Amino acid sequence: MKRKQGGLSLVGFLMALAVLGFAAYVGMKLFPMYQEYYAVRSAMKGLSNEPGVADMSPQRIQELFFRRLYINYSENVKPQNVKFERANGGWVMRVTYEVRRPLIYNLDVVGNFDTRQALTRRGSGEE
Length: 127
Fold this sequence. Notes:
The protein has helices at residues 10-48, 58-71; strands at 82-87, 90-104, 107-119. The chain is an alpha+beta fold and 127 residues long. The protein is elongated and about 85 Å long.
């Protein structure tokens, strides 16, 4: 009796390996973009918990923000990407920036990130 063995051939294995390799490559390009975005979000949340942040000048807030980003090795957020709007009881900080990474040949991955955070903490015990 002859039995036919079923399974993945070498060509099928190489095709599956190529697809998984491409997915890993794209993931390696996208992961740092989103890691930086979450670093920006955490720096903004940390600023919102800072005592007296509502009474600080926008320049001082921006300086504290970029100190926090410097720790996270953020490269794409520049001072011109940070805007402040006056809100009742403090400031609203808005960070809008774009990240462009080359993918393959002439294809790029572009990430547009836009986030905002209310900075209204007045100080000791007030919220």
